[in-house]
Amino acid sequence: MTADQRPLNVLFLCTHNSARSILAEAVLNHIGQGRFKAFSAGSSPRENQRPNPLALQVLERAGISTAGLRSKSWDGFGGEGAPPMDLVITVCDNAAGEACPYWPGAPATAHWGYPDPSEVQGTPEERLEAFRRTLHAVRHRLELLVNLPPERLDRTVLQQSARDLARPS
């Protein structure tokens, strides 16, 4: 990336913006090497929604900053003054099936589905393990994205590159 290029802006979407999309935002900002700027949002975050405490806990244990993470609506990313998105990725099946707002600039889109770790029942350790598994799955796919050669991140091929990463490896 040259000095005059801005990072690729990536928006991760989920329904409530409390677990999977939060994990993806934090991980990509952590490993993005300045080439990526990640954001997350939800199609219908609940009133006073906050990131799931278990999501924050696994991020902190992995040495990934949780500073500034908050649940927010996707409405804030489709209007005036919103950062222009290059890539929008849904990370839960509910958000993938919903009618998305208009994204200025017509960004590339992809769906990377992950099971919802917050739905796992069991002991506190079993629930935490579900979040750890999701974190590792998200991180694996994001490491592949970050390590794509620059020509695979060009706007004209970005959508296919992101969709290719959704396939099982």
UniProtKB/TrEMBL annotation:
Alphabetical list of Gene3D superfamilies matching this protein: 3.40.50.2300
Matches recorded under CDD domains: LMWP_ArsC
Domain Phosphotyrosine protein phosphatase I, first and last residues per copy: 8-148
Keyword Translocase: no
Name of the protein this chain belongs to: Arsenate reductase (Arsenical pump modifier)-like protein
Organism whose genome encodes this protein: Ramlibacter tataouinensis (strain ATCC BAA-407 / DSM 14655 / LMG 21543 / TTB310)
A GO biological process held by the record: response to arsenic-containing substance
Source organism superkingdom: Bacteria
